[in-house]
Amino acid sequence: MSYLRSAAGEQALRxxxxxxxxxxxxxxxxxxxxxxxxxxxxxxxxTVRLRRRAAAxxxxxxxxxxxxxxxxxxxxxxxAAHRARRLAGATVHDxxxxxxxxxxxxxxxxxxxxxxxxxxxxxxxxxxxxxxxxAPVPLCRADALHPVTEDAVVVADPARRSGARRRFxxxxxxxxxxxxxxxxxxxxxxxxxxxxxxFAAVRQLGFGGEIEVVSLAGGVREACLWSAGLxxxxxxxxxxxxxxxxxxxxxxxxDCPVAPAGRWIVEPDGAVIxxxxxxxxxxxxxxxxxxxxxxYLSGDRLPAGVRGFEVLDALAFHERxxxxxxxxxxxxxVEILVRGLDVDPDALRSRLRLRGxxxxxxxxxxxxxxxxxxxxxxxxxxxx
Length: 384
Known about the structure:
Blueprint: H1 2-5, H2 7-16, H3 26-37, H4 41-54, H5 68-73, H6 77-86, E1 91-94, H7 101-106, E2 112-117, H8 120-133, E3 139-141, E4 153-156, E5 161-162, E6 165-166, H9 177-183, E7 189-193, H10 199-204, E8 210-216, E9 219-226, E10 237-241, E11 246-249, E12 264-266, H11 270-274, H12 278-285, E13 288-289, E14 297-299, E15 309-316, H13 319-328, E16 331-339, H14 345-352, E17 358-367, E18 374-382
Parallel strand pairs: 1-2, 1-4, 2-3, 4-7, 8-10, 16-17
Antiparallel strand pairs: 5-6, 7-9, 8-9, 10-11, 12-14, 12-15, 13-14, 15-18, 17-18
Helix pairs in contact: 2-4, 3-4
């Protein structure tokens, strides 16, 4: 660690950064690095590779230090910036600061920010990363379950991995979520969790605030738990779509009818679906549900900035009939979306054996419940 932060280490990292380090060149590149830097070659190669991976999450990570596990759990820069905006003007203590990604965003918004972690190596990395990317932040070594501050808003990101394995039980997080809630019960706090966490289990552990689900670049990134003192008025669930800046909450109207498909089919952003706010989203945009149990929505107008699918044809789902309908349209390339049916899109695409120059999207859905339920195939033209 001290070597990587030294002038010699930085020079060595710049040298190794000149290697391609691709699958086809990795063995030769490692051999070359070993010839130049001996036993230190492994950590140099690993650091350069981690920095390249980090570019997908951060715009300014070229000089940062990482561990593989810390990078996997690190919050993407736009997501951390969003959280920092919600905490603007507050005094904030990041009690699991790791390599400093949250602190880098918080220091630009919070009135005062401090970081701590139980891992001395990650603390050293955080110190290096923050100094290289802007103003330094006070750091100390401390256990998240034994806070060293009193009045600050606590931000925590419990570890959800053990090596390559994920921890799904919130009581198996490090620190355990139930113990963390007990320690923070009288303090404002923000806890980052995996997006797939069981919301009911979180409530059973005593959490009574707002659950925010955040998406970025078309993917759901996290569920963030905001204590009651930091939650929106009456809000228990929120979906935040960073790609568009839109936010949907459960205090909004959800009077959404169920009706046959109109001109467009819309699949809401994953954050909306994960937060259980499909009906609220539909009500906001004048859409309706195709089925009360399915997330597909429909409408005669497409919401601004949203990718939708213009319905060209609808038929009862049967592979042979679908193949015939697509062939009649000269479709050779097809995108397949599925909800409510046990269909593998890739396997179905292969079985359709399509030939043609046109492209289309097929939306498959089970509409109706019980014996009345049926698979329906909508042949569509995507808006983009």
